[in-house]
């Protein structure tokens, strides 16, 4: 048994874990091995030390500040969401005997390509680009960041991440057709990614569904009655919490219910991956890559619970009337600023302007805008109106 997995209950054949010294550790620019750290551990550290990673602290998850209350400061940002995803993904990877260092690197990088203002910002940016025959895709933008923009090393452009981490970035929550993306040829587009990468999509969903119920309740946009009526899993665990701790403060009952929801999703995920692996009899990474479908998922029953929770959040939180003004403002700011920078590229810093000949004006403006935090975007917009 290897030291890294000593705490794990290894029920999966170790052949399916991505090797810490195999093909997927290849970098575009070869580097000597590190004395103490595996290539994937080094990648996790490079991401953690990147400027784009730090900026996640200033980017919206659902909202950074409560609408109408600029002093609220404890809601999730993309950074804290990212750390929650890493916690869940790491637990699952270790329980499944996978390469948790690769999983951790992928969790830390999974949202690094998100523009300011969450999905409203992304929608506005995509719409602005569509008018120029282009699209905004946060996975491909993340790949541009780690491959080019993060200039931290004199020896090579970007972070020079391993092939395994770059493949995971490309395949986060979607698959690209090889025929439409010849530039992505090295990422095994006709195959599924390793389990380590597949885990991130579900860890992401589990993290944000439970966290957004928490922030929704905390902000008062969602009421306890509403969540109990709309999310059966929550309601069940809330009943249990009331019965087990009849004298606890009401908000502790809600926290306890959410904690149990999260745990139920994560445990089900781990068990379902084990079940699917056993059913398929897959013993190698190659078999996972060529399986009939992605092997990471929830059981049928918990998948129903996941879909219901997500639907509830869309209807009552993300698309609620409380959020309308927040989204409208975000879309306005991003749209205005995009047009402004297109008309006056000299408003961009010189290192960005220098990209125009190679990347074109539209892509350069997009890269600059997508990298901004919410508050930077807001200030630049206010200053250039
Ligand atoms: Mg995410």
- SS-based class: mainly alpha
Bin the helical content.
55-70%
Tertiary shape: globular
CATH class category label = Mainly Alpha
Q: What is the second-level CATH architecture?
A: Orthogonal Bundle
Number of domain modules: 1
What's the helix count? Answer: 18
What is Rg? Answer: 22 Å
End-to-end separation = 62 Å
Number of strands: 0
> Poorly predicted ranges (pLDDT <50, ≥5 residues)?
1-9
User: What number is the mean pLDDT?
Assistant: 92
Q: Which molecules are bound besides the chains?
A: magnesium ion
* Helix-strand topology string: HHHHHHHHHHHHHHHHHH
CATH topology-level name: Hypothetical protein af1432
How much of the polypeptide forms β-strand, as a percent range?
under 5%
Largest sheet: none
Protein architecture, described:
This protein has 385 residues and is mainly alpha-helical. Helix 10 (232-244) packs across helix 11. The radius of gyration is 22 Å and the shape is globular. The protein has one domain: Hypothetical protein af1432. The relative contact order is 0.13. The N and C termini lie far apart (62 Å). Residues 1-9 have low confidence and may be disordered. It has helices spanning 39-48, 51-55, 78-95, 100-109, 118-130, 138-149, 163-170, 195-219, 224-230, 232-244, 250-280, 285-289, 300-318, 321-343, 350-353, 356-359, 361-371, 374-384. The longest helix is centred in the C-terminal third of the chain and has 31 residues, at 250-280. Bound molecules: magnesium ion. Magnesium ion is lined by residues 81, 85, 110-111, 204.
